[in-house]
From TrEMBL:
The keyword Transmembrane helix applies. This is Methylamine utilisation protein MauE domain-containing protein. InterPro entries: Methylamine_util_MauE. It is found in: Membrane. It comes from the Bacteria. It is a multi-pass membrane protein. Keywords: Membrane, Transmembrane, Transmembrane helix. It comes from Microlunatus ginsengisoli. Pfam families: MauE. Residues 2-128 form the Methylamine utilisation protein MauE domain. The chain crosses the membrane at residues 51-81. The keyword Transmembrane helix applies.
Amino acid sequence: MLRLVLGGVLLVAGGLKVIDPQTSVQAVRAYQLLPDGLARIVGWGLPFAEIALGLLLIVGLFTRVAAIAAGVLMVVFIVAVTSAAARGLSIDCGCFGGGGQVAPGQTAYAAEILRDVGLLLSAVWLAWRPESRYAIDHDDGIDDGEIEEDEQ
């Protein structure tokens, strides 16, 4: 279930951003953490990375690697939102599209951080225990040695 939830969140987040890449770039710039050129690259590339990771997790392919990458993304998101809050920026996180400046008091930093911590814990669990039923990389418990013995 965690694989589907984390994958679904990443797929939706990336899908909502990929339809308007300029807004995604604007959201990355609003954090004021990256130089303009790098913010543009991250703003354009992040939606595709989220979609790819989401799809890998949903189908259960390279689950451990995808979970580790998703966990790294969650840590980056937590650090970025915490940094924005600590510096007194009033921005929308841009997590599901949108982003940029918002009116003071209209931020939801605590909820965003809690959500991302929950997703990070899901990613950690999946990196530790990547096997799951109905995944492409599902281990059915039969190793090659057992098959060879049965055939003989």
